[in-house]
Design goal:
It is built from eight helices and two strands. The protein is mainly alpha-helical. It has one domain. It has a two-stranded antiparallel sheet. Helix 2 runs antiparallel to helix 3, helix 2 packs antiparallel against helix 5 and helix 4 packs across helix 7. The longest helix is centred in the middle third of the chain and has 27 residues.
Length: 178
């Protein structure tokens, strides 16, 4: 799966060369995630004597897929989703449908505006998902992979994303074993 993940990252990275476009994605992708799960989180599904939020249940397969593609990036992404789910739960528990739908609309519009602005103004290229819809699931992983590479934790992914950083021998061994 590692090689497949690197190919997907490389494809996505070709559409995200300008650092300013990447910044719009660092902000826009979490906004779009929250917007997408916000109305779903208000719906509770009975399962095993518990009422589980539909947003969390529908996110679970994506998280499993992200972890299957790359354990480190997927697990980091899963951890980073926790505060987003907490924010969503606070909004849902406010009990105000007006607040829920206002947040949804604002985040949805702001998130997509950032995405399209990044591509139109900075990248001058259409988004990757226009050419391959599966890239909508790679976007969150790309953001996390860029973060981990920037922190020096995943230099093995730098080459796939077009970074100038070269992987160390330790990174290459970790990539081969994972």
């Amino acid at each position: 799966m590692y090689r497949f993940f690197c190919r997907q990252l490389a494809f996505y990275a070709r559409y995200h060369q300008d650092p300013r476009n990447c910044v719009t994605h660092y902000l826009g992708i979490p906004m779009l995630f929250v917007a997408a799960i916000l109305p779903l989180e208000a719906v509770r599904i009975p399962l095993g004597g518990h009422l589980l939020p539909l947003g969390m249940l529908l996110t679970l397969p994506a998280v499993i897929g992200w972890i299957a593609l790359d354990l480190g990036v997927g697990a980091t992404l899963a951890l980073l989703l926790c505060p987003l789910f907490a924010v969503v739960e606070l909004i849902v528990r406010s009990g105000s449908p007006a607040l829920l739908w206002s947040c949804f609309a604002g985040l949805f519009l702001a998130g997509w505006s950032l995405q399209f602005m990044g591509h139109a103004v900075y990248e001058r290229r259409r988004p990757a998902f226009v050419d391959d819809l599966s890239q909508t699931l790679i976007g969150p992983m790309f953001v996390v992979a860029k973060l981990l590479v920037g922190l020096g934790l995943r230099a093995d992914l730098a080459a796939a994303m077009g970074s100038k950083k070269e992987p160390t021998a330790t990174d290459r061994r970790a990539a081969e074993s994972g």
